[in-house]
Amino acid sequence: MGDDDATAIGRTRFEFARIASPDEVAECLTSIAHGLKRGEVSFTSGGLALRFAPTAGIVVELKATERGEQGRLRVRIGWKARKKDVTALRISARSGGARGVRSRQAPILPSSPTTRATRTGSILVIEGDEHPRRMLLDTLAAAGHAAVGTASGLEGLAQFRQGAFDVVVTALSMSECSGVDVARAVKKLSPATPVVLIAGWGDVMTPEQMRDSGIDLVLVKPFKWGRVLSVLADALALCQPR
Amino acid sequence: MSADQEFECERVATPSEAADSLARIAEGMRARTLSLTAGDEEITIFPDGHVMVQIGAKRTQAKGTIDIGVAWRHPRV
What we know:
The complex is a heterodimer of chains A (242) and B (77).
Chain A: E1 7-9, E2 13-20, H1 22-38, E3 41-45, E4 48-52, E5 58-67, E6 70-80, E7 122-126, H2 130-142, E8 146-150, H3 153-162, E9 167-171, H4 179-189, E10 195-199, H5 207-213, E11 217-220, H6 225-238
Parallel strand pairs in A: 7-8, 7-9, 9-10, 10-11
Antiparallel strand pairs in A: 1-2, 3-4, 5-6
Chain B: E1 5-13, H1 15-31, E2 34-38, E3 41-45, E4 51-59, E5 63-73
Antiparallel strand pairs in B: 2-3, 4-5
């Protein structure tokens, strides 16, 4: 795990999403299982590592569904940290010293990819649903990007022809003109412009389908601002400076 | 593909037991067939082709979670 397109890591959280084979998923699971046995599970990305030390009293939740053509499996491992070991607590007193309590702070990890200073750009967001469109536009604007939103693929392509956009972010499912149609049209007009596809949970495209459609990156719903900015930073890194 | 099926279970485990569960799920992923059983409930799932995997982990001072989600679409025959 780590150093992939949709990986985000911070001081307290790690997120990772990608299309993989069942064998690759099995490798991830095996790696987490080994970590649990060792007493420390590590997630790494871009030279950063986030370590977890699950203690006794772990709750394992399993949810699996097979519905028609789709299947899902969700495994959740949760635990509560133990109170600090009393034997590790040291109390000392001395007279004449400074008053008050000084505590040693936990070491601070270097800034995460989600908080690093990144290039800003002009982004075209094509999303039929108002709520996610608004959320994306607000998140991008707050991060300093110039973001323009449209509610349909055809409208979005018209905007793209008129403006100069660094990146196009498009929903997959839209009436008249789908995200795949948008991606193909964008690549025809401007092959160097990265296209990010917004996919719902369970929308699975193969890497070949993505490449053939001109889709460079995938942003999986539900959105988290850290992941949105991380994927956008990766998309901007792909595009040629204008 | 078989009829719609749903399975849900929860249990308290030691880190070693949780690791064993993950290792068995990994075996099932490799075999493209995974059976889960808890009491009367049972499901057999068939992850195959390209799957979407999402892993999320977070911690606070008091607790932590590791979430693993896998989704797949069966190829049309």
